[in-house]
Amino acid sequence: MKKISKMPTKEKETFKRPDGRKLAEIRKMYAKVGIIPNADGSAIFAFGDTVAIAAVYGPRQLHPQHMQDPATGILRVNYDLLSFSVYERKKPGPNRRSQEISKVTEWALSPVLDLKEFPNTVIDVQVYILQADAGTRTAGINAASLALAHAGIPMRSLVCSVSVGKLDKNLVVDLNKEEEDYEEGEGATDFPVAKIANTEKYTLLQLDGKIQPETVKKVLDLADKACDEIYEVQKKALKEVVEQ
Amino acid sequence: MSSMDCSNITKETIKRMFAEGKRFDSRGLFDFRPIEVSFNVSNKAEGSARVKIGKTEVVAGVKMEIGEPYPDSLDKGNLTVSGDLLPLASPRFEAGPPKFNAVELLRLVDRVIRHSGILDFKKLVITPGEKVWTVIIDIYPINDDGNIIDAASIAAVAALKKTMVPALDENGRIDYHKESKTPLQIEKDILPVTLTFFKLGDSLALDLAREEEEACDARVVFGISKLGDEYFINSCQKGEEVPLTKKEIDQIMGIISEKFEKLNEKLKKFF
Protein backbone atom coordinates (compact mmCIF):
# COMPACT_ATOMS: atom_id res chain seq x y z
CA MET A 1 0.00 0.00 0.00
CA LYS A 2 2.81 2.39 0.88
CA LYS A 3 4.38 1.96 -2.52
CA ILE A 4 1.11 2.89 -4.17
CA SER A 5 0.75 6.22 -2.40
CA LYS A 6 4.19 7.25 -3.67
CA MET A 7 3.34 6.75 -7.32
CA PRO A 8 3.84 9.83 -9.50
CA THR A 9 0.84 12.12 -9.60
CA LYS A 10 -0.69 13.03 -12.89
CA GLU A 11 -0.98 16.75 -13.42
CA LYS A 12 -4.50 18.07 -13.13
CA GLU A 13 -4.47 19.57 -16.62
CA THR A 14 -3.27 16.41 -18.30
CA PHE A 15 -5.61 14.01 -16.51
CA LYS A 16 -7.98 12.56 -19.08
CA ARG A 17 -11.32 11.19 -17.96
CA PRO A 18 -12.25 7.97 -19.74
CA ASP A 19 -15.25 9.56 -21.44
CA GLY A 20 -13.40 12.80 -22.28
CA ARG A 21 -15.35 15.00 -19.86
CA LYS A 22 -13.77 18.00 -18.12
CA LEU A 23 -12.92 17.42 -14.43
CA ALA A 24 -15.92 19.35 -13.13
CA GLU A 25 -18.29 18.36 -15.91
CA ILE A 26 -21.52 16.55 -15.01
CA ARG A 27 -22.81 13.93 -17.43
CA LYS A 28 -25.69 15.03 -19.64
CA MET A 29 -28.66 15.53 -17.37
CA TYR A 30 -32.27 14.81 -18.17
CA ALA A 31 -35.18 15.61 -15.87
CA LYS A 32 -38.91 15.40 -16.35
CA VAL A 33 -41.77 15.38 -13.89
CA GLY A 34 -45.19 13.77 -14.16
CA ILE A 35 -44.12 10.47 -15.69
CA ILE A 36 -46.37 8.20 -13.60
CA PRO A 37 -50.02 9.27 -13.81
CA ASN A 38 -51.13 7.17 -10.81
CA ALA A 39 -48.68 8.82 -8.45
CA ASP A 40 -49.33 12.06 -6.56
CA GLY A 41 -45.96 13.21 -7.83
CA SER A 42 -43.34 11.61 -10.03
CA ALA A 43 -40.13 12.33 -11.85
CA ILE A 44 -37.31 10.87 -13.87
CA PHE A 45 -33.73 12.07 -13.49
CA ALA A 46 -30.72 10.92 -15.47
CA PHE A 47 -26.97 11.48 -15.23
CA GLY A 48 -25.84 10.10 -18.59
CA ASP A 49 -26.53 6.37 -18.54
CA THR A 50 -27.77 6.36 -14.94
CA VAL A 51 -31.55 6.67 -14.95
CA ALA A 52 -33.69 6.98 -11.82
CA ILE A 53 -37.46 7.23 -11.53
CA ALA A 54 -39.34 8.27 -8.42
CA ALA A 55 -42.99 8.25 -7.40
CA VAL A 56 -44.60 9.92 -4.40
CA TYR A 57 -47.77 8.56 -2.82
CA GLY A 58 -49.27 10.62 -0.03
CA PRO A 59 -49.68 12.15 2.39
CA ARG A 60 -51.94 9.22 3.18
CA GLN A 61 -52.99 7.46 6.33
CA LEU A 62 -50.21 5.36 7.76
CA HIS A 63 -50.87 1.71 8.43
CA PRO A 64 -50.30 -0.08 10.74
CA GLN A 65 -51.94 2.50 12.95
CA HIS A 66 -49.49 2.12 15.84
CA MET A 67 -46.76 3.57 13.63
CA GLN A 68 -48.69 6.82 13.20
CA ASP A 69 -47.30 9.97 14.79
CA PRO A 70 -50.00 12.40 15.96
CA ALA A 71 -47.40 15.21 15.98
CA THR A 72 -46.27 14.91 12.37
CA GLY A 73 -46.39 13.05 9.10
CA ILE A 74 -43.47 10.81 8.31
CA LEU A 75 -41.36 10.27 5.21
CA ARG A 76 -40.70 6.72 4.07
CA VAL A 77 -38.31 6.04 1.19
CA ASN A 78 -37.76 2.83 -0.67
CA TYR A 79 -34.82 2.67 -3.09
CA ASP A 80 -33.89 -0.30 -5.23
CA LEU A 81 -32.22 -1.32 -8.46
CA LEU A 82 -34.47 -2.99 -11.00
CA SER A 83 -33.09 -6.48 -11.61
CA PHE A 84 -31.99 -5.72 -15.19
CA SER A 85 -30.42 -2.34 -14.45
CA VAL A 86 -26.94 -3.85 -13.93
CA TYR A 87 -24.76 -6.35 -15.84
CA GLU A 88 -25.00 -9.14 -13.23
CA ARG A 89 -28.75 -9.49 -12.67
CA LYS A 90 -29.73 -8.07 -9.29
CA LYS A 91 -31.84 -10.46 -7.27
CA PRO A 92 -35.19 -8.70 -6.75
CA GLY A 93 -36.01 -7.47 -3.27
CA PRO A 94 -34.22 -5.45 -0.64
CA ASN A 95 -30.64 -6.15 0.40
CA ARG A 96 -28.29 -4.43 2.85
CA ARG A 97 -27.13 -1.91 0.28
CA SER A 98 -30.63 -0.89 -0.79
CA GLN A 99 -31.81 -0.67 2.82
CA GLU A 100 -28.98 1.71 3.60
CA ILE A 101 -29.54 3.85 0.51
CA SER A 102 -33.27 4.03 1.28
CA LYS A 103 -32.48 5.36 4.75
CA VAL A 104 -29.82 7.89 3.70
CA THR A 105 -32.18 9.14 0.97
CA GLU A 106 -34.83 9.63 3.63
CA TRP A 107 -32.33 11.58 5.77
CA ALA A 108 -31.24 13.59 2.72
CA LEU A 109 -34.77 14.71 1.87
CA SER A 110 -36.53 15.15 5.20
CA PRO A 111 -34.79 18.42 6.29
CA VAL A 112 -36.63 20.34 3.53
CA LEU A 113 -40.05 18.93 4.43
CA ASP A 114 -42.32 20.18 7.16
CA LEU A 115 -44.83 17.43 7.74
CA LYS A 116 -46.36 18.83 10.94
CA GLU A 117 -49.43 19.84 8.92
CA PHE A 118 -50.06 16.19 8.06
CA PRO A 119 -50.30 14.33 11.38
CA ASN A 120 -50.75 10.55 11.36
CA THR A 121 -49.83 10.31 7.70
CA VAL A 122 -47.01 8.87 5.65
CA ILE A 123 -45.46 10.13 2.45
CA ASP A 124 -44.13 7.17 0.52
CA VAL A 125 -41.33 7.83 -1.93
CA GLN A 126 -40.49 4.98 -4.27
CA VAL A 127 -37.17 5.28 -6.09
CA TYR A 128 -36.16 2.75 -8.72
CA ILE A 129 -33.13 2.61 -10.97
CA LEU A 130 -33.85 1.66 -14.58
CA GLN A 131 -30.27 1.72 -15.74
CA ALA A 132 -27.19 1.97 -13.54
CA ASP A 133 -23.86 3.52 -14.45
CA ALA A 134 -22.77 4.74 -10.98
CA GLY A 135 -24.32 7.63 -9.10
CA THR A 136 -27.66 5.87 -8.66
CA ARG A 137 -28.34 7.22 -5.16
CA THR A 138 -27.60 10.80 -6.23
CA ALA A 139 -29.79 10.50 -9.33
CA GLY A 140 -32.46 8.90 -7.12
CA ILE A 141 -32.36 11.79 -4.64
CA ASN A 142 -32.66 14.34 -7.46
CA ALA A 143 -35.65 12.45 -8.88
CA ALA A 144 -37.28 12.06 -5.47
CA SER A 145 -36.83 15.74 -4.66
CA LEU A 146 -38.57 16.61 -7.94
CA ALA A 147 -41.35 14.10 -7.34
CA LEU A 148 -42.03 15.56 -3.87
CA ALA A 149 -42.26 19.06 -5.36
CA HIS A 150 -44.50 17.76 -8.14
CA ALA A 151 -46.78 16.18 -5.53
CA GLY A 152 -47.26 19.62 -4.01
CA ILE A 153 -45.76 18.69 -0.64
CA PRO A 154 -44.69 21.88 1.17
CA MET A 155 -40.91 22.14 0.83
CA ARG A 156 -38.46 24.76 2.05
CA SER A 157 -36.28 24.14 -0.97
CA LEU A 158 -35.19 21.42 -3.36
CA VAL A 159 -32.48 18.92 -2.49
CA CYS A 160 -29.70 18.51 -5.07
CA SER A 161 -27.28 15.63 -5.09
CA VAL A 162 -24.11 14.70 -6.92
CA SER A 163 -21.13 12.47 -6.40
CA VAL A 164 -17.64 13.93 -6.35
CA GLY A 165 -14.85 11.50 -6.95
CA LYS A 166 -11.13 11.32 -6.59
CA LEU A 167 -9.26 9.33 -9.23
CA ASP A 168 -5.72 8.90 -7.95
CA LYS A 169 -5.20 12.53 -6.88
CA ASN A 170 -7.60 14.22 -9.31
CA LEU A 171 -10.97 15.47 -8.18
CA VAL A 172 -13.74 14.88 -10.68
CA VAL A 173 -17.49 15.40 -10.61
CA ASP A 174 -20.16 12.75 -11.22
CA LEU A 175 -18.25 9.47 -11.57
CA ASN A 176 -19.47 6.87 -14.02
CA LYS A 177 -18.99 3.14 -13.42
CA GLU A 178 -15.74 2.95 -15.36
CA GLU A 179 -14.32 5.74 -13.19
CA GLU A 180 -15.65 4.18 -10.00
CA ASP A 181 -13.55 1.10 -10.80
CA TYR A 182 -10.36 3.17 -11.40
CA GLU A 183 -7.44 1.43 -9.71
CA GLU A 184 -4.30 3.44 -10.49
CA GLY A 185 -2.40 5.40 -7.84
CA GLU A 186 -4.66 6.14 -4.91
CA GLY A 187 -7.54 4.47 -6.74
CA ALA A 188 -11.08 5.77 -6.83
CA THR A 189 -12.87 7.54 -4.02
CA ASP A 190 -16.60 8.06 -4.35
CA PHE A 191 -18.05 10.89 -2.27
CA PRO A 192 -21.79 11.33 -2.79
CA VAL A 193 -23.19 14.56 -1.39
CA ALA A 194 -26.67 16.06 -1.14
CA LYS A 195 -27.46 19.56 -0.02
CA ILE A 196 -30.33 21.95 0.40
CA ALA A 197 -30.19 24.10 -2.75
CA ASN A 198 -28.49 27.48 -2.32
CA THR A 199 -27.32 26.79 1.23
CA GLU A 200 -24.22 25.28 2.82
CA LYS A 201 -26.27 22.63 4.56
CA TYR A 202 -25.41 19.06 3.62
CA THR A 203 -28.05 16.40 4.06
CA LEU A 204 -26.14 13.44 2.64
CA LEU A 205 -22.46 12.72 3.09
CA GLN A 206 -21.09 9.32 2.27
CA LEU A 207 -17.68 8.20 1.19
CA ASP A 208 -15.86 5.11 0.06
CA GLY A 209 -12.18 5.09 -0.71
CA LYS A 210 -9.21 7.07 0.39
CA ILE A 211 -9.06 10.83 0.70
CA GLN A 212 -6.97 13.26 2.75
CA PRO A 213 -8.89 15.25 5.40
CA GLU A 214 -7.68 18.53 3.90
CA THR A 215 -9.15 17.62 0.50
CA VAL A 216 -12.70 17.31 1.83
CA LYS A 217 -13.29 21.06 1.63
CA LYS A 218 -12.37 21.07 -2.07
CA VAL A 219 -14.83 18.23 -2.60
CA LEU A 220 -17.62 20.25 -1.02
CA ASP A 221 -16.77 23.30 -3.17
CA LEU A 222 -16.99 21.17 -6.32
CA ALA A 223 -20.25 19.64 -5.13
CA ASP A 224 -21.65 23.14 -4.50
CA LYS A 225 -20.97 24.20 -8.09
CA ALA A 226 -22.41 21.01 -9.53
CA CYS A 227 -25.49 21.25 -7.33
CA ASP A 228 -26.14 24.78 -8.64
CA GLU A 229 -26.30 23.33 -12.15
CA ILE A 230 -28.52 20.45 -11.03
CA TYR A 231 -30.85 22.90 -9.29
CA GLU A 232 -31.35 24.77 -12.59
CA VAL A 233 -32.20 21.52 -14.38
CA GLN A 234 -34.67 20.61 -11.63
CA LYS A 235 -36.33 24.03 -11.70
CA LYS A 236 -36.66 23.87 -15.48
CA ALA A 237 -38.36 20.47 -15.28
CA LEU A 238 -40.84 21.76 -12.71
CA LYS A 239 -41.60 24.87 -14.77
CA GLU A 240 -42.26 22.75 -17.85
CA VAL A 241 -45.02 20.81 -16.13
CA VAL A 242 -46.67 23.98 -14.85
CA GLU A 243 -46.67 25.53 -18.33
CA GLN A 244 -48.25 22.50 -19.95
CA MET B 1 -32.21 1.50 32.62
CA SER B 2 -35.44 1.31 30.75
CA SER B 3 -35.83 1.27 27.03
CA MET B 4 -37.34 4.74 27.11
CA ASP B 5 -35.75 7.36 24.93
CA CYS B 6 -34.02 10.21 26.66
CA SER B 7 -36.53 12.67 28.15
CA ASN B 8 -36.86 16.24 26.88
CA ILE B 9 -35.51 17.67 30.12
CA THR B 10 -32.40 15.47 29.90
CA LYS B 11 -31.98 16.47 26.26
CA GLU B 12 -32.11 20.15 27.12
CA THR B 13 -29.64 19.68 29.96
CA ILE B 14 -27.18 17.76 27.77
CA LYS B 15 -27.52 20.40 25.06
CA ARG B 16 -26.81 23.21 27.51
CA MET B 17 -23.87 21.36 29.01
CA PHE B 18 -22.38 20.54 25.59
CA ALA B 19 -22.57 24.22 24.69
CA GLU B 20 -20.47 24.91 27.79
CA GLY B 21 -18.11 22.06 26.90
CA LYS B 22 -19.27 19.93 29.83
CA ARG B 23 -20.47 16.34 30.22
CA PHE B 24 -22.12 14.30 32.99
CA ASP B 25 -18.97 12.23 33.53
CA SER B 26 -16.71 15.31 33.36
CA ARG B 27 -14.98 14.26 30.15
CA GLY B 28 -14.07 16.81 27.48
CA LEU B 29 -16.35 16.80 24.40
CA PHE B 30 -13.82 14.89 22.28
CA ASP B 31 -12.44 12.58 24.98
CA PHE B 32 -13.01 8.84 24.90
CA ARG B 33 -14.02 6.82 27.93
CA PRO B 34 -11.43 4.24 29.10
CA ILE B 35 -10.84 1.58 26.43
CA GLU B 36 -9.95 -2.06 26.99
CA VAL B 37 -9.15 -4.59 24.30
CA SER B 38 -8.76 -8.30 25.01
CA PHE B 39 -8.43 -11.30 22.74
CA ASN B 40 -9.51 -14.90 22.28
CA VAL B 41 -13.18 -14.63 23.16
CA SER B 42 -13.67 -18.00 21.48
CA ASN B 43 -10.96 -20.54 20.70
CA LYS B 44 -13.16 -21.88 17.91
CA ALA B 45 -12.87 -18.64 15.98
CA GLU B 46 -9.91 -17.99 13.68
CA GLY B 47 -9.45 -14.75 15.59
CA SER B 48 -11.57 -12.89 18.11
CA ALA B 49 -11.58 -9.87 20.37
CA ARG B 50 -13.57 -8.02 22.97
CA VAL B 51 -13.62 -4.24 23.22
CA LYS B 52 -14.93 -2.19 26.08
CA ILE B 53 -15.40 1.56 25.87
CA GLY B 54 -16.74 2.60 29.24
CA LYS B 55 -19.73 0.34 29.78
CA THR B 56 -20.15 -0.40 26.08
CA GLU B 57 -18.90 -3.85 25.19
CA VAL B 58 -18.63 -5.48 21.75
CA VAL B 59 -17.20 -8.84 20.70
CA ALA B 60 -16.04 -9.71 17.20
CA GLY B 61 -14.93 -13.02 15.77
CA VAL B 62 -13.37 -13.96 12.45
CA LYS B 63 -14.22 -17.17 10.64
CA MET B 64 -12.66 -18.06 7.30
CA GLU B 65 -14.35 -20.11 4.61
CA ILE B 66 -13.29 -21.31 1.21
CA GLY B 67 -15.44 -19.85 -1.50
CA GLU B 68 -15.51 -18.72 -5.08
CA PRO B 69 -14.33 -15.26 -6.13
CA TYR B 70 -16.89 -12.77 -7.39
CA PRO B 71 -17.05 -12.69 -11.19
CA ASP B 72 -15.85 -9.07 -11.29
CA SER B 73 -12.83 -9.72 -9.04
CA LEU B 74 -11.47 -13.16 -9.90
CA ASP B 75 -8.05 -12.33 -8.45
CA LYS B 76 -9.35 -11.30 -5.03
CA GLY B 77 -10.72 -12.96 -1.92
CA ASN B 78 -13.85 -11.78 -0.15
CA LEU B 79 -14.76 -9.95 3.03
CA THR B 80 -18.13 -10.21 4.73
CA VAL B 81 -19.05 -8.27 7.84
CA SER B 82 -22.02 -9.76 9.60
CA GLY B 83 -23.63 -9.88 13.04
CA ASP B 84 -26.62 -8.37 14.77
CA LEU B 85 -27.79 -6.12 17.58
CA LEU B 86 -28.93 -8.90 19.91
CA PRO B 87 -31.64 -8.29 22.52
CA LEU B 88 -28.95 -9.54 24.92
CA ALA B 89 -27.22 -6.18 24.87
CA SER B 90 -30.00 -3.69 25.44
CA PRO B 91 -33.73 -3.42 26.07
CA ARG B 92 -33.79 -1.31 22.89
CA PHE B 93 -32.78 -4.21 20.65
CA GLU B 94 -35.47 -6.57 19.44
CA ALA B 95 -35.39 -10.13 18.22
CA GLY B 96 -36.11 -10.91 14.58
CA PRO B 97 -34.42 -10.12 11.29
CA PRO B 98 -31.69 -7.43 11.52
CA LYS B 99 -33.15 -3.93 11.69
CA PHE B 100 -31.68 -0.95 9.90
CA ASN B 101 -29.37 0.01 12.79
CA ALA B 102 -27.73 -3.40 12.64
CA VAL B 103 -27.40 -3.35 8.85
CA GLU B 104 -25.87 0.12 8.96
CA LEU B 105 -23.36 -0.82 11.69
CA LEU B 106 -22.11 -3.79 9.69
CA ARG B 107 -21.83 -1.81 6.48
CA LEU B 108 -19.91 0.99 8.22
CA VAL B 109 -17.40 -1.47 9.72
CA ASP B 110 -17.11 -3.26 6.37
CA ARG B 111 -16.29 -0.05 4.53
CA VAL B 112 -13.57 1.26 6.83
CA ILE B 113 -11.80 -2.13 6.78
CA ARG B 114 -12.25 -2.67 3.05
CA HIS B 115 -10.87 0.73 1.99
CA SER B 116 -8.11 1.16 4.57
CA GLY B 117 -5.85 -1.39 2.91
CA ILE B 118 -5.37 -3.46 6.09
CA LEU B 119 -6.41 -6.54 4.09
CA ASP B 120 -4.77 -7.32 0.78
CA PHE B 121 -7.57 -9.15 -0.99
CA LYS B 122 -5.17 -10.51 -3.63
CA LYS B 123 -3.40 -12.48 -0.91
CA LEU B 124 -6.61 -14.35 -0.12
CA VAL B 125 -6.55 -16.30 -3.37
CA ILE B 126 -6.04 -20.07 -3.08
CA THR B 127 -6.50 -21.13 -6.72
CA PRO B 128 -6.72 -18.13 -9.06
CA GLY B 129 -10.18 -17.70 -10.51
CA GLU B 130 -11.58 -20.71 -8.62
CA LYS B 131 -10.94 -20.82 -4.89
CA VAL B 132 -10.45 -17.93 -2.52
CA TRP B 133 -10.73 -17.25 1.19
CA THR B 134 -13.80 -15.45 2.41
CA VAL B 135 -13.03 -13.60 5.63
CA ILE B 136 -16.19 -13.30 7.69
CA ILE B 137 -16.18 -10.91 10.61
CA ASP B 138 -19.14 -11.32 12.96
CA ILE B 139 -19.90 -8.51 15.36
CA TYR B 140 -22.13 -8.69 18.44
CA PRO B 141 -22.58 -5.97 21.06
CA ILE B 142 -22.75 -7.44 24.57
CA ASN B 143 -23.75 -4.21 26.29
CA ASP B 144 -24.82 -1.00 24.59
CA ASP B 145 -23.94 2.20 26.36
CA GLY B 146 -23.41 4.26 23.23
CA ASN B 147 -20.79 4.51 20.50
CA ILE B 148 -21.31 0.94 19.32
CA ILE B 149 -19.92 1.80 15.87
CA ASP B 150 -16.47 2.89 17.05
CA ALA B 151 -16.27 -0.03 19.50
CA ALA B 152 -17.30 -2.48 16.77
CA SER B 153 -14.67 -1.29 14.32
CA ILE B 154 -11.93 -1.59 16.93
CA ALA B 155 -13.15 -5.10 17.80
CA ALA B 156 -13.23 -6.12 14.13
CA VAL B 157 -9.68 -4.88 13.50
CA ALA B 158 -8.43 -6.45 16.75
CA ALA B 159 -9.93 -9.81 15.77
CA LEU B 160 -8.37 -9.58 12.29
CA LYS B 161 -4.95 -8.89 13.80
CA LYS B 162 -5.09 -12.19 15.73
CA THR B 163 -6.56 -14.28 12.93
CA MET B 164 -4.87 -17.58 11.99
CA VAL B 165 -5.66 -19.07 8.59
CA PRO B 166 -7.10 -22.58 9.09
CA ALA B 167 -4.99 -25.52 7.92
CA LEU B 168 -6.16 -27.51 4.89
CA ASP B 169 -6.25 -31.29 4.45
CA GLU B 170 -4.87 -33.12 1.40
CA ASN B 171 -8.14 -32.51 -0.48
CA GLY B 172 -7.90 -28.78 0.06
CA ARG B 173 -10.68 -28.68 2.64
CA ILE B 174 -10.42 -26.94 5.99
CA ASP B 175 -9.14 -29.28 8.71
CA TYR B 176 -9.99 -27.82 12.10
CA HIS B 177 -8.08 -30.54 13.94
CA LYS B 178 -4.80 -29.64 12.33
CA GLU B 179 -2.99 -26.82 14.06
CA SER B 180 -2.87 -23.61 12.08
CA LYS B 181 0.52 -21.99 11.80
CA THR B 182 -0.23 -19.25 9.30
CA PRO B 183 -1.35 -15.86 10.54
CA LEU B 184 -3.69 -13.98 8.23
CA GLN B 185 -1.55 -11.57 6.21
CA ILE B 186 -2.51 -8.05 7.09
CA GLU B 187 -0.77 -4.70 6.86
CA LYS B 188 0.51 -4.49 10.43
CA ASP B 189 1.12 -0.75 10.34
CA ILE B 190 -2.44 0.10 9.37
CA LEU B 191 -4.92 0.50 12.17
CA PRO B 192 -8.19 1.74 10.72
CA VAL B 193 -10.74 3.13 13.15
CA THR B 194 -14.02 4.95 12.91
CA LEU B 195 -14.63 8.24 14.68
CA THR B 196 -18.31 8.98 15.13
CA PHE B 197 -18.97 12.67 15.63
CA PHE B 198 -22.32 13.72 17.05
CA LYS B 199 -23.97 17.07 16.64
CA LEU B 200 -26.23 18.61 19.26
CA GLY B 201 -27.25 22.21 18.78
CA ASP B 202 -24.03 23.94 17.73
CA SER B 203 -21.78 21.46 19.54
CA LEU B 204 -19.84 18.48 18.25
CA ALA B 205 -18.65 15.59 20.41
CA LEU B 206 -17.07 12.12 20.30
CA ASP B 207 -17.72 8.82 22.12
CA LEU B 208 -21.23 9.50 23.34
CA ALA B 209 -22.87 7.46 26.05
CA ARG B 210 -26.31 6.03 25.24
CA GLU B 211 -28.20 8.88 26.88
CA GLU B 212 -26.11 11.50 25.09
CA GLU B 213 -26.61 9.76 21.75
CA GLU B 214 -30.36 9.82 22.26
CA ALA B 215 -30.22 13.58 22.75
CA CYS B 216 -28.32 14.31 19.53
CA ASP B 217 -29.57 15.84 16.30
CA ALA B 218 -27.21 14.25 13.80
CA ARG B 219 -24.23 11.99 13.53
CA VAL B 220 -21.40 11.52 11.08
CA VAL B 221 -19.11 8.50 11.01
CA PHE B 222 -15.64 8.82 9.50
CA GLY B 223 -13.44 5.81 8.86
CA ILE B 224 -9.82 6.91 9.05
CA SER B 225 -6.40 5.32 8.69
CA LYS B 226 -2.80 6.37 8.35
CA LEU B 227 -0.38 5.31 5.63
CA GLY B 228 3.16 6.44 6.35
CA ASP B 229 2.72 10.04 7.45
CA GLU B 230 -0.49 10.62 5.59
CA TYR B 231 -4.00 10.41 6.99
CA PHE B 232 -6.81 9.08 4.84
CA ILE B 233 -10.55 9.19 5.28
CA ASN B 234 -11.74 5.79 4.02
CA SER B 235 -15.44 6.07 4.68
CA CYS B 236 -18.04 8.55 5.74
CA GLN B 237 -21.72 8.46 6.47
CA LYS B 238 -23.96 11.14 7.82
CA GLY B 239 -26.94 9.93 9.81
CA GLU B 240 -30.20 11.38 11.08
CA GLU B 241 -32.23 14.23 9.71
CA VAL B 242 -30.44 17.42 10.72
CA PRO B 243 -28.02 18.72 8.05
CA LEU B 244 -24.34 19.39 8.70
CA THR B 245 -22.94 22.75 7.68
CA LYS B 246 -19.75 23.33 5.76
CA LYS B 247 -18.31 24.97 8.89
CA GLU B 248 -18.96 21.86 10.95
CA ILE B 249 -17.40 19.59 8.34
CA ASP B 250 -14.36 21.90 8.21
CA GLN B 251 -14.10 21.80 11.99
CA ILE B 252 -14.14 17.99 12.00
CA MET B 253 -11.55 17.78 9.20
CA GLY B 254 -9.36 20.17 11.18
CA ILE B 255 -9.21 17.94 14.26
CA ILE B 256 -9.74 14.44 12.91
CA SER B 257 -6.05 13.52 12.47
CA GLU B 258 -5.29 14.61 16.02
CA LYS B 259 -8.26 12.62 17.42
CA PHE B 260 -7.14 9.62 15.38
CA GLU B 261 -3.67 9.83 16.97
CA LYS B 262 -5.15 10.13 20.44
CA LEU B 263 -7.28 7.03 19.97
CA ASN B 264 -4.37 5.18 18.37
CA GLU B 265 -2.22 6.00 21.39
CA LYS B 266 -4.82 4.37 23.65
CA LEU B 267 -5.08 1.28 21.44
CA LYS B 268 -1.37 0.73 20.78
CA LYS B 269 -0.67 -1.01 24.08
CA PHE B 270 -3.15 -3.76 23.21
CA PHE B 271 -1.69 -4.65 19.83
What does this entry look like structurally?
The complex is a heterodimer of chains A (244) and B (271). Chain A contains 5 helices and 9 strands, in the order αββββαβαββαββα. With 244 residues, chain A is of the alpha+beta class. In chain A, 27% of the residues lie in helices and 31% in strands. The N and C termini of chain A lie far apart (57 Å). The longest helix of chain A is centred in the last third of the chain and has 28 residues, at 216-243. In chain A, strand 4 (74-81), helix 2 (96-109) and strand 5 (121-131) form a beta-alpha-beta unit. Mean pLDDT of chain A is 93; it is low at 1-8. Chain A has one domain (2-243): 2-Layer Sandwich (Ribosomal Protein S5, domain 2), CATH 3.30.230. In chain A, helix 2 (96-109) packs across helix 3 and helix 3 runs parallel beside helix 5. Chain B has 271 residues and is α+β, with helices and mostly antiparallel strands. Chain B has one domain (8-268): GHMP Kinase, N-terminal domain (Ribosomal Protein S5, domain 2, 2-Layer Sandwich), CATH 3.30.230. Chain B has 5 helices and 13 strands. Chain B has helices spanning 8-19, 100-116, 148-161, 210-215, 246-268, and strands at residues 35-39, 47-53, 56-67, 78-83, 125-127, 131-143, 164-165, 182-183, 193-200, 203-206, 218-227, 230-239, 244-245. In chain B, the strands form 3 sheets. In chain B, strands 1, 2, 3, 4, 5 and 6 form a 6-stranded mixed β-sheet that branches. In chain B, helix 2 crosses helix 3. Chain B is elongated. The chains are: A alpha+beta (244), B alpha+beta (271). The interface between A and B is large, with 35 and 41 residues. Strand 9 of chain A pairs antiparallel with strand 13 of chain B.
